[in-house]
Request: fold
Amino acid sequence: MIKVLMVCSGGMSSSLVVNTIKKEAEKENIEIDIKAVGTGEYIDEVKEDWDLILVAPQVRHRFEGFEEQAKEENIPIELIPPQNYNPLAGAKLIKQIKKYL
Amino acid sequence: MNKLFECIEKGLMPPMIKISEQRHLKAIRDGLIASMPLMIIGSIFLIIAFPPIPALAEVMAPFIENLTLPVHATFEIMGLIAVFAIAYNLGKSYNLDGLTSGILSLSSFILVTPRIEEGFQVVYMGSQGLFVAIIIAIVTVEIYRLIVNKNLIIKMPEGVPEAVGRAFGALIPGLVVVLVFWVIRLSLNSFFKLSIFDVVERVLQTPLKQLGGSFLGGLIAVLLIQVLWSAGIHGISVVASVMAPIWYALAEENAAAKAAGEVLPNVMGQQMMAIWIAVGGSGMVLALAILFVWKAKSKHVKSLGKMTIWSSFFNISEPIMFGAPVVMNPILIIPFILAPVAVYVITYLAMALNIVGRSYAVVPWTTPAPFSGILTTGDWKAGVLMIVGILISMAIYYPFFRVWDNQIAEQEVEQKSS
Reply:
């Protein structure tokens, strides 16, 4: 079981991508607990028990700030490549997560 | 084209990023977002009190006074909410106690508010006090931080309940803050016969509002949002880190005017940026999504269109922005910038010339068109205007979409044959 936190601007678009990831994970038999939040909720959410944080490309200008807090909590953090941030790229998204299984 | 993207990435982005990451601006933005649910609740009552259908409006007329009570308790305390919420966020960003930051600022805000016979001048609790609220929240938290850093707070021994420790911890910073604002209030009053609200309004609020609320101010904001999005950065959240106080203040003025039965003063405002120029998400992307589903020849674009059009109805554009992609796409970027500019100009003119009603209600940005337009303005004609905006955007997107879709279709054929 891997717990992933995904952060985008308002938590809306990432929840769409989260659905894509969940579907793909089911296909590949990967147990995943993934949650989408907006940038405003990040500071509180990061303190929870996550195995990985993924940052949506449209908020990559805030990546350094997110990274700082993730480091404090000892959670690996990665940017989602722009070309993978869409509902057609489920397999690529799962691949990015698989590294941390 | 690649040079242009490089220019955006290296020239425009770093300063923009600095701005949007700036601690105080971030606290202001997050603090203002906190009042969003209240504004939507107030808007529901505004919409019921002034329904878009004339016959229904007549039925509602006798109840307007009671129906607008929640408007006074939501829109019209925007400054009050802001002073607490901004200080709370700023305090937390410094690892200070958020609650203490909030209540100290609230107290300072009330302290500088002019008094009338039986209490405070409530008018300053709304957008008229918004800029004072921002200044007070920042100054209060900075004083608080200074005192904590100098270790001048009263510390309780371990084992004392947190709430008690907090109460004592707030004592000295609170006293200093109150003294500072007390002196400011008294000296402004006795030397110049002014309140801090008068000063801030003249020096800051009015010029900023005139700048940000003007046609040109809005146009520059639209262009910046689009250019940032072209490089794949969430443009509106960056631009809003500076502009949000102005946009929200303009929206509140309109809501208050509507509740009071007056003429709506502003064309620009939160709704123009969040709703009108962003049907389907920034860049009028719904128009592009419709073209994808309706006119695409390539499989990639057609299937992407079918998968993403639903999210586009709810103004979530990222699946298309990154899926097509529109981001960094030298062909699609051109209409992506032009379409919202065209819609902005048309919408601005239609509202300025009073052909359609101006926005006063705040609705969630996920409200689909044309309902978002009708609900924000209480005018069915606004729904027509919104549909016209989508059609114009489709016309602007079409030639570029055609060229790009053909390219993809050709690539697909090549891939198949090889």
